[in-house]
Design a protein that fits this description.
By secondary structure, this protein is mostly helical. About 55% of the residues lie in helices and about 0% in strands. It has a single domain, classed as Non-ribosomal Peptide Synthetase Peptidyl Carrier Protein, Chain A (Orthogonal Bundle), CATH 1.10.1200.
Length: about 80
């Protein structure tokens, strides 16, 4: 995963939801079909893909997918 676009593709592939680059910054409540199970699934996938552990509390507090992406990329 090298970019936000790769992240969006990963989210779409893993959740089956129609996430786009345009709505990745929207709040989770604005994403059609989104629920908390998708977030836990995404956390697991991101840890697998990056080989790094992510903070569950930080991910749960994220207001959007863009914020989850920011937590995922190394600083």
């Amino acid at each position: 995963m090298n970019s936000i676009d790769d992240f969006v593709v990963l989210v779409r592939d893993e959740t089956g939801l129609e996430v786009t680059r345009e709505n990745v910054e929207a709040g989770f409540d604005a994403l059609p079909g989104w629920d908390s199970l998708h977030l836990l699934t995404l956390l697991t996938v991101l840890e697998r893909e990056t080989g790094r552990s992510l903070s569950l509390p930080d991910v749960l507090e994220a207001p959007s997918l863009a914020h989850v992406y920011a937590l995922t990329v190394p600083r």
